[in-house]
Amino acid sequence: MMAMAAALVDAEALRRQRLLNWLQSAILLFGLFGLAAITGFLFAGTDGVIIAAAIAAVFLIVTPASGEILFEYVYGAVRLTPASAPRLIALVAELVRRAGLERSPVLFLIPTPLLQAMAAGSRDAPSIAVTSGLLHTLSPRELAAVLAHEISHILHGDMFVMRLAAGAGSMTHAMSTAGIFLLIAYFPVLWSSGVTLSPFAIALLIAAPMVSDLLQLSLSRRREFLADAGAVELTGDPMALARALERIEELQGDDWERFTARGGRWLRWFSTHPTTAERIERLVGLVALPRGELPGWSWSESQQALPNSGGQTLGRRLVRRALL
Fold this sequence. Notes:
Elements: H1 11-61, H2 67-74, E1 78-79, H3 86-99, E2 106-110, E3 117-121, E4 126-131, H4 132-137, H5 140-155, H6 158-192, H7 199-235, H8 238-251, H9 255-262, H10 276-283, H11 299-302, H12 314-318
Helix pairs in contact: 1-6, 1-7, 3-5, 5-7, 5-8, 6-7, 8-10
């Protein structure tokens, strides 16, 4: 079992991790948009690139649903207030202060025994949801580390970054689908007129959507590593997050992670999150004395004060896995 003693942070290792994650994220985003542009060019030349850019612009202009709507109406979550969970709200407020965020996220409780935390919204309207199972299971230090991870997602603008990636992916899928459709429709004409088609261009048009999806998944994994490093910066306590990941793995596990462990490493390319072992491996090299005491929290003390979920079951049916 992993020890819970805190030690000194390796500031240089933390700096290298953050720099590497930022660099990898930039390369992956560039690759996504480059692939979308190439696919658009194969479809309709310069006009195809312009069409692809227009699709991306529309995708970004459309404002996503707020975290509050997502958590309340999809997951059946209950909004927490200083009156219902004062110490938990104080903990989030301290982490927000350390992160330098202008707006504190709205905190929600999802009534389910699953161990899960997630962030949604944007830096201007952030929200964080935690499950009752997570609050009941983790120690105060572990819970602080998990919340710091979610706040790091907000600080780094990960929701917007993934929207950018999704926009590029949508461009690639749209251009590829249209190009393949036109290729099939006009193939008899092209064949009879003696037009030579590039096998490489056809292969790229067919493979582009899959490559785009893999790049998006890789970007998601890089942002998880970045959020882990951000959590260490906020708490100065990497072992708390490592222990929380280990505890969640022990008690809940991950069906996909167990499946990939029995297969080849290439199966991990299709996961949105790094494996727990990979995340812990990076965290154990970052050890620090905690940056002062964070407000404590106790399930037993706050259980009676938390609002009643009213037997909402929609969240129980829809929450599937822990997203740290």
